[in-house]
Write a structure and sequence with these properties.
This protein is mostly helical. It contains 13 helices and no strands. Helix 6 runs antiparallel to helix 7.
Length: about 325
């Protein structure tokens, strides 16, 4: 069994190994912080109900009305989104990094490379997986009246979805493809700097770690924590705008519609106060620290287990293959 598994691993191309490692890292990290993610979304979107009672009050309310599973409402869609998202994010980061080194060697291999590759990787991953994020947010937004209530117990006259597929089909029937990508603009505006800064800070911190400690899991966790913390702080208001745009069709119809990212930022600051743009940030710090730390750590561990060559080795391997194919074409 081990021999056959080794054979499968050896036969896998590098990009496939990076996809697998990234997908597993994303799934593990997202599930670990799912309860805090649910509370954060409710803070961002159901301001009157949850922000006023605080973090622990919100946790008690969800536990009382929905039970333990309430903390994982929308997590199925979240994991379904995060596995392909993280797989694409990590893999395309490595691919963009190799591509930039190959075509723009003058850029060097410092922090600018990680910033650019991380930014484009984040944008690519968002474009491919955004509809799943929209569905996850809509499902997480629904609040059941009590633990014994059926789905009909959701407050008011809000749209009720029975699950992931129902949410997809209903959203598509209402607004088509544009409906599935509602709020994608602030997501892209946010992910470009966030993803770039996250990889930048993580790789930059690792460069200052002594060689004998670079494989320590505790060191990776610390580097990942700080990277996520700094990256998220700079881009959090765009995340609030994205969430409110995603759920605005579910809320009372007397609210003014948020049409554009800049307009939404101004409107939220004017009508709800500028503090609303940072609503849930304290929870996000608690969530981001373990999430990013676990994600980077599991990714590095999985790469090691899948025997992914180091970035320098992979770059040399690709370069040698290209030279070989170029030479063979000249001979022919």
């Amino acid at each position: 069994m081990n021999a056959s598994m080794d054979g499968v691993i050896e036969a896998m191309p590098v990009f496939a190994k990076e996809l697998v490692a990234g997908g597993i890292a994303g799934g593990v990290a997202k599930t670990a912080v799912a309860p805090l993610e649910r509370v954060k979304i409710l803070f961002q979107t159901r301001r009157a109900e949850f922000q006023s009672i605080g973090l622990f009050g919100s946790i008690r309310k969800i536990a009382k009305t929905e039970g333990l599973l309430g903390f994982y409402r929308g997590n199925g869609a979240s994991v379904a989104r995060i596995i392909p998202y993280a797989a694409l994010h990590y893999m395309t980061y490595e691919e963009y990094r190799r591509w930039i080194i190959h075509w723009f060697p003058d850029v060097g291999r410092g922090p600018v490379l990680d910033l650019v590759a991380g930014s484009f990787a984040g944008g690519t991953a968002v474009l491919f997986t955004y509809p799943l994020d929209l569905v996850r947010t809509k499902l997480a937004y629904q609040v059941v009246g009590s633990s014994s209530s059926s789905v009909k117990g959701v407050l008011g006259s809000e749209q009720v979805y029975r699950g992931i597929l129902d949410c997809f089909s209903t959203t598509y029937k209402e607004a088509g493809i544009r409906g599935l990508y509602r709020g994608v603009a602030p997501s892209l505006y946010g992910i470009f700097p966030y993803a770039g800064l996250k990889f930048y800070f993580y790789e930059e911190m690792k460069r200052h770690v002594p060689e004998e400690h670079k494989k320590d899991i505790a060191v990776k966790l610390v580097c990942g924590s700080v990277a996520g913390l700094l990256g998220q702080t700079f881009t959090y208001p765009l995340d609030v705008v994205r969430r409110q745009m995603q759920v605005q069709r579910l809320t009372a119809c007397n609210r003014a519609e948020l049409k554009g990212t800049v307009e939404a930022l101004v409107m939220i600051a004017k009508r709800q106060g500028w503090k609303q743009l940072f609503s849930g940030l304290s929870i996000n710090y608690i969530r981001v620290v373990p999430s990013v730390a676990i994600g980077f750590t599991v990714y590095d561990v999985m790469k090691s287990n899948l025997r992914v060559p180091s970035r320098d080795e992979a770059g040399i391997e690709v370069e040698l293959k290209e030279r070989s194919s170029h030479a063979s074409s000249l001979h022919s």
